[in-house]
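User: For my dataset I need records formatted as: sequence, then structure tokens, nothing else. Please produce one.
Assistant:
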Amino acid sequence: GLVFERKKENIGELLFANLQRVEESLRVLEEISKLFSYKEEENFRRLRFKVYNIEKKILIFLSQYAEKKNS
């Protein structure tokens, strides 16, 4: 059946929901590539960890921005 997602409340929720999708997709591509090519598996793994790092940097930035905004 159809699963309906709740509406995202703000840009942050929308951004992180989509980052999760990217991370999951890269993980699937990494797993599939294990069947065919070690090199491609490593490429997908590196991309996945780059996305994790981007997500971490965004979280730090947003946290700092919120602190400045609230002070």
